[in-house]
């Protein structure tokens, strides 16, 4: 799993959902995808262009009207879409989907299969700020996707975080995705 690609995919709110829908067979036309995501037009368009910039999605040459283009997954995008589909199946309800649209949810879960300290998680995700990590950890704990345990034997006491329940299933879905874009 390439954590940098996971961070890049989740940088736009609807990218993961668009990939999952394409994997599940929703037509690659912009109108069909927009309707299926139920996203706003601007956020949807930004996510779509973001996926094109990441080389996970491309315009389907020779298909679609210039004002209503059709899109298809690239070879790397096919594997990323399979990962996105597995993740969205783990978290099917709307409150889960809202949490998955947050930029740091997926990256934090993907580096937390075993107990890790705040600092260990932060060093695994170089661009994350202390505040963003702290807020994400609290949200994931509140949703019961991450467990916080305090080691009182350490001096000073240290908190350790690790993925649990649906968070652990999401971690496993992400860990199947390799840096080369092929499933392991």
Automatic annotation (TrEMBL):
Entry-linked InterPro entries: HTH_HxlR, WH-like_DNA-bd_sf, WH_DNA-bd_sf
Limits of the HTH hxlR-type domain: 91-184
Domain of life according to the entry: Bacteria
Transcription in keyword set: yes
GO molecular function: DNA binding
Keyword Membrane recorded: no
Pfam families, per the entry: HxlR
Alphabetic keyword roster: DNA-binding, Transcription, Transcription regulation
Protein name: Helix-turn-helix transcriptional regulator
Organism: Sulfitobacter geojensis
Lineage: Bacteria, Pseudomonadati, Pseudomonadota, Alphaproteobacteria, Rhodobacterales
């Amino acid at each position: 799993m390439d954590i940098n690609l996971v961070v890049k995919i989740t940088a736009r709110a609807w990218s993961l959902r668009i990939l999952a829908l394409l994997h599940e067979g929703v037509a690659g036309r912009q109108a069909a995808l927009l309707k299926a995501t139920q996203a706003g037009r601007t956020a949807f368009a930004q996510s779509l262009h973001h996926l094109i910039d990441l080389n996970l999605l491309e315009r389907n040459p020779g298909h679609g009207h210039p004002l209503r283009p059709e899109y298809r997954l690239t070879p790397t995008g096919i594997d990323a879409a399979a990962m996105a589909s597995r993740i969205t199946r783990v978290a099917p309800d709307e409150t889960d989907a809202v949490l998955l649209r947050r930029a740091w949810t997926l990256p934090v879960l993907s580096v937390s299969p075993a107990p890790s300290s705040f600092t260990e998680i932060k060093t695994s995700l170089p661009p994350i700020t202390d505040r963003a990590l702290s807020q994400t950890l609290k949200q994931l704990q509140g949703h019961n996707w991450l467990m916080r345990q305090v080691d009182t034997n350490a001096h000073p006491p240290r908190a350790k975080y690790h993925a649990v329940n649906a968070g652990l299933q999401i971690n496993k879905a992400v860990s199947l995705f390799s840096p080369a874009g092929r499933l392991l």
